[in-house]
Batch of 3 targets.
Target 1
Amino acid sequence: MLFTEEQIKSRVKQLGKQLAREYAGKPLVVLGVLNGGAIFCADLVRAMDIPLGLAFVRASSYGDGTVSRGEADIFLEQGFSARGRHVLIAEDIADTGKTLAALKERLLSCGALSVKVCCMLNKPSRRQVAVRVDHVGFDIPDEFVVGYGLDYAGRFRNLPYIGVLSREAYGG
Ligand code: IMP
Ligand code: MG
């Protein structure tokens, strides 16, 4: 166990309040990153007491394992437009930073007024691409974690807490 359900809830509330102040009066769309970021995103927008749009993007740099494949695939919703809006990316975790860097570049090229990133978790020691993560729930060490949206080979996303996957479980 790394973070309990209660710790997560209270941190997400704080982030939501802070973000609501930051974006008050501005055209905002919160963009959840599927699949992992969906759960965090759903909680985050409900902690933000301001008008906002909600959309999702599919992005993945991971296969089934615990090591990044390197390149990120990005599929925006059909009809999604970032033009003239501030975009806040809601993601489960910033690891190598490749997914977020690719996503930010894509959104800025689509005419977003600004693109900021809010991640539930951040593994700063793993960064390979310099990418600014504007808001972070918790910084964590280099461990493979599951729960609260994060999976290992498609499992554990629905855990209400965040735990470290034991190395025996994946032979790492
Ligand atoms: P990046 O492009 O390497 O930063 O990869 C970010 C993505 O990798 C996240 O959206 C997660 O889906 C996945 N990921 C990175 N670290 C972990 C982890 O510890 N557990 C589960 N998924 C992870
Ligand atoms: Mg992900």
Target 2
Amino acid sequence: MREELEQIKREAAEGIRAAGGVKELEELRVALLGKKGRLTGILKGMGRLSAEERPALGQLANEARDFIEGGISAAKAELSRKATLARLAAETIDVTLPGKARARGHYHPMTTAMEELKRIFLGMRYEIAEGPDIETEYYNFDALNIPSDHPARDEQDTFYVEGKDADGGGFALRTATSPVQARTMERGRLPIRMICPGQVFRADEVDATHSPVFHQMEGLVVDKGVTFGDLKGALMVFAREFLGEDTRARFRPHYFPFTEPSAEMDVSCFKCGGAGCNVCKGEGWIEVLGCGMVHPRVLEMRGIDPAVYSGFAFGMGLERIAMLRGAISDMRLLFENDVNFLNQF
Ligand code: DAH
């Protein structure tokens, strides 16, 4: 019996060492210490021993039981300690690692140009006006004193839209922001100081300087005693704020049906300052917009007396302006939205 107890202890020690998990340890415990366990069987057989043998063997058997129980519970504790350590290791966060930088968005160069223009003119107390993209032929042409045989009316230049308005006139996608002038004058609230940025449409093929959809910004001022000097003053503020303090401007006589007199405004090249370079194509000057004094007929058609009121107007292409500012050589880059291109701005 003595030997058997020693044997059980050895086997128990072996089993504990070999056990890979709590389940195996539990099985070992049942096999040795359970109701039908081997050690339990020995303890039960104690009664058969003689009175001399019993105390010593009883003590040995108890020791064996304590040894096994202690071993198993120590092994369980060790397993759970290891499991905790493993989980902590797996969940460790290295707070010293550099963070992942999030890519930040930014404005498209067209948006930047448009916002800057709005800021400049709102600063001169202009208001922002809007008009429909699908315009009546009347507002797009007639109200702007554009004669019915004007080439701009040709199907080759203008996208016409099906349908007739209340007066039997046709519709077109607006070819300029200028019809908003007529709509604003019609509201009968004077004086007027407005800008109108928006999309316009022309039947042009796409190339480096053309697109069937592009943007313009119109300006209109109508009040008593408005002169060409006021026009030049307002546009000089725009040129200096938008292109730089040293910008100079010149006004070349031109023709538009809705203004008289009319002019085109050139600004001194903001890159070379006027000496001539690749941006201004050696000219020293860059054309930026059309402008003029609102034609008396245009005022009259809107019920404004040209003997009392006068006004000036201007219109510029925003892609062109954004391209000049960003030294962008191809208009398509503004529409293609290639992120590698846009990230430069
Ligand atoms: N409507 C002209 C265009 O599309 C631009 C323009 C020129 C607008 C002179 C004006 C102006 O208001 O006065 O080319």
Target 3
Amino acid sequence: MEQIRHIIDGAEVDSASGARFHSVDPWTQQPWAEVALGDAEDAARAVTAARRAFDEGPWPRMGRTERSAILHRLGDLMTEHADELALADTTDMGKPLADMTKKDIPRSVLNFRFFADHSRLSTGEALPMDSGHHVYTRYEPAGVVSAIAPWNFPLMMETWKLAPALAWGNTVVLKPAEDTPASASVLGRLALEAGFPPGVLNVVHGYGPNSVGAALTADPRVDRITFTGESGTGRIIAGSAAANLTPVSLELGGKGANIVFADADLDTAVHWSIEAIFSNAGQVCLAGSRLYVQREIYDEFVERFCAAAEALVVGDPKQAGTQVGPLASAEHYKKVRSFVESIEAEGGRMRTGGLGDGWTVRPTVVTDAPQTSRLWREEIFGPVVVVAPFDTESEAVAAANDTPYGLNAMLFTENLSRAHRVAAALKAGTVWANCFFIRDLRAPFGGVGNSGVGREGGNFSRDFFTEPKAVVMAIAEAAS
Ligand code: NAD
């Protein structure tokens, strides 16, 4: 069985307690890896290492060019080890291997390359003043970062946090989700090979409450907390951060609205709407899980959408051709199953889908459910979409905005003015018009309401992971 250990201060180590737990492959439902089970003591060891690496080590003091080269070297090594990294996440959480190699790995590598270049090339501001002074800004590394990650895009989410934090000269303690420890350990080893000094990137495995996660958010030696996960967990972490006044970035849940107007290109709308809810078996914060379709095309759209959903290949994530794998864990499968089993009782009609073999759920399309039902209100985080007709643009916008979440929304129309008007009216951190999931890493990424606090991406990440400083210079009169 695979052995996974922590990486603390440049070495692979077991937990101080010697405790271990198993990571379970959701397709075989069997344990496949034995993992060091960390606790508060291991978290404290890692923070001590990160603190020392920041306060005394070369990393924050290194020139940007040298740091950038190490980040690029890590990108090279990740590319060389792409198969190992892809297999790690697929075995841990059931994501199709093809998605890992085509999407998650390239994007994870890009996260490092982008922030390597972004930090090296970025500039500060010079602010000329009237009074014989001028001001300039410096972006100084913030210190020790606790990074706490979810299981749905393990490597991709982790690198999205690590790359800017490290590029800007911070040191990090990463806690991967307990269901997906494997890729983080491979990454930690590759980082050492790439030349990261000991203590700069530490990886500690374990649970959240009363464990590693809670310890990493309560430690006063931590300067930044970056968290991606459920909205409820985000509230707990915000409370913990508040006790130490530690700045916190929260990327939380979603219940994305997807509005298809009658004048949309239907092929485009069906293609992206399918991708938006069924990729990664719907375990996507950005999932387009609430679908509003204008009444004139409602029946035709639902028919084409259901046909496309039925054509998706559900099964073994390691088989080429599989598009929808199992849900990530027994616990998560039970949660999604309870939503599927409640469809009728909630007043909905299942048009296609339902429970599949093992921990799979077939792409499930629900119509007729009342807008007040759990199916419309709660994040299911599985391959289940609710669909309803609408008549007017204002009705669609009001329905889309009627949610406590606000991570993203989508709209499909060939009317240019409407596209801009509706994009402006939607309460969401990202709006995609006639597409989905297209990202520019300079753009702000994050949510409103229960979907989070703060933004990541480009300068937004820089502002979070640095302490911007103003230096005010007096310009003395020339001696005559
Ligand atoms: P989760 O909140 O259960 O766990 C996320 C991480 O937090 C895990 O590492 C977990 O161990 C840790 N954790 C749990 N309780 C903790 C505590 N009290 N203190 C410190 N750490 C704690 O979330 P999940 O089930 O792993 O992920 C799915 C959720 O993440 C969904 O809601 C999804 O929408 C959201 N998500 C959001 C984004 C985004 O960018 N907004 C991206 C991916 C996933």
